[in-house]
Write a structure and sequence with these properties.
The structure is a homodimer of 307-residue chains.
Chain A (H helix, E strand, L loop, with lengths): L5 H13 L10 H6 L6 E3 L5 E6 L8 E7 L6 H12 L7 E6 L3 E5 L21 E2 L8 E3 L8 E5 L2 E5 L6 E4 L5 E4 L13 E4 L13 E7 L2 H4 L18 E8 L11 E4 L4 H11 L22 E3 L2
Antiparallel strand pairs in A: 1-15, 2-3, 2-14, 3-13, 4-5, 4-14, 5-12, 6-10, 7-8, 8-9, 9-10, 11-12, 11-13, 15-16
């Protein structure tokens, strides 16, 4: 382990603390988050968690992916549809059909003929952004400078691009792990039945062109490490290459004892401010030249599993 | 294929061309590159190509990764060492030991005890950047605005951060697929024997903190789709999880008939300018709202295989 010696550094820090000496270096982002007070963490409601079980991997290990649905008022028609599709168990028996390197893994009905449940909301281009004025006061934290959007902020832990800090349009941005709604050429065609997760460098050109409905908060490796498809856009060539989806459920539909529990670090907290500053100015011993900046997708919101 | 309908769009464009009608949309980046004149492509010298063969995958398919070494005057001591290590066949029998999701895949000697060949150059923190004045005139093309560096440019196809356009320090940047030199806490410790490839969102905080010696130009999926390691930093827990490296050779050491041939799109060409503009302002039919910008890591340099 000659590179990126975080374990060694953590051990050194722990040893220094134990011996009463000052730590040999400023706290790393990980260390800052590790000592966040309980009040800086926000529980994620079971109705905002999508639990996705796919067929076991080559070695037989189970594969579960957990997705957090995006906070209101973003992407409301699609989030409603995703909840309805999950309640209808619509994805059970569908599959992951497309894995394109440095881009997305995508799932849904490969036949494109499975009937959708009734009552899905119609969505349109209008719904790709919201009005900043509709956001709750005190839940919006200024984000870093950006080359794509005039302004950025975090809202209830979600990375957002915006026309300005206090007014104008605002839209979630395509960072690693974000989950979006596949659509046809018409911007009004995506229902939420076809979803993808970002598994590469942030494809920010998709912002405001596709709806984002959530993010993977556990098990992204079960998507990002899948074999890449060899057809155009990374679609699998043969049906047997597809990865079967056993079931997708809202956590709120699971028995209480089986519901996974997660919380996120409040982006309005003092810990978040320290974490973001440390990400932009790495002072841990490995770094000889802090960057002085972090783009919005290099500020992943810490998530912890409670059980 | 209900999303990202590129094949359909290409078919429409081809049909429109065949019928003599104007194409129904402006050219996409892919279409622009497809019609680049031969003079816009630059052959990559066999001495700048590293051919890495790893053990076959679970399905028995061969796995080859090709790396282009970075252009002079960047990272000279490490590039010299990489060539020397390849000539000594030093990597044969070593392994990929670390795969960390959204970060890096790393290879080298897991025992950390394999003797290095003699004559490796010493490198130091000084070598992480070069002086812009040392660059060849006419080979530097202005790059996009950046949140990490005061300026960016492309030099002979390499993405570079810099203090300014014409003077001051310049350094290659950590985009997807870039290959860097693992090191210990001391910035003077990396020889080039331990290498990693970026397999996630650009970890730009590593710029100027670690040497970059090249980029993967073919077969990145054989690294990015590997199972993630479960120890800290993504190191594999058990020796049998490591992926054996059969051999790494400079292409120039292979028989001429076996040397792969690649070329890159000249970043000084008119095609590059059109490509970069189209990446920043996607006008193909799928997009309803062009971004108006592309960060330097969303401008991957087109590479084509000649044989």
């Amino acid at each position: 382990m000659t590179a990126f010696l975080l374990p060694l550094l953590l051990a050194q820090a722990a040893a220094a603390q134990a011996s009463g000496r000052a730590a040999p270096h400023p706290q790393s982002p990980t260390e800052i988050v590790a000592v966040a007070p309980a009040t800086d963490w926000v529980a994620i409601a079971p109705d905002d968690l999508l639990v996705m079980d796919v067929a076991p991997g080559p070695a037989g290990a189970s594969r579960r992916i957990v997705i957090q649905l995006i906070a209101a008022p973003f992407a409301r028609p699609w989030v409603a549809n995703v909840r309805r599709l999950a309640a209808a168990h619509w994805w059970d028996g569908t599959s992951i059909n497309r894995v394109q390197d440095n881009y997305v893994a995508q799932w849904g009905d490969a036949t494109e003929k499975k009937p959708l449940p009734s009552g899905l909301a119609a969505a349109s281009e209008r719904d790709y952004a919201i009005d900043t004025a509709a956001l709750a006061a005190g839940e919006r934290t200024v984000g870093p400078a950006d080359v794509y959007a005039p302004a950025t902020f975090f809202y209830r832990s979600w990375p957002v691009g915006a026309e300005g800090q206090g007014q104008g349009a605002a839209w979630p941005v395509h960072c690693y792990g974000m989950v979006g709604v596949g659509r046809d050429v018409s911007p009004n065609t995506g229902t939420g039945a076809e979803l993808y997760a970002v598994i590469g460098h942030a494809p920010r050109h998709l912002d405001r062109n596709i709806a984002l409905v959530g993010r993977v908060i556990e098990g992204i490796e079960h998507l990002s490490s899948l074999p890449r498809g060899t057809l155009g856009l990374g679609f699998y060539d043969r049906a047997e290459q597809r990865v079967a989806i056993v079931r997708i459920r809202l956590a709120s539909e699971l028995p209480t004892s089986e519901q996974p529990r997660f919380s996120y670090l409040s982006t309005s907290s003092a810990t978040w401010a320290r974490y973001a500053a440390a990400r932009a100015n790495r002072q841990d011993a490995f770094f000889i030249r802090p960057a002085g900046a972090a783009d919005i997708c290099n500020l992943p919101v810490p998530i912890r599993r409670l059980r």
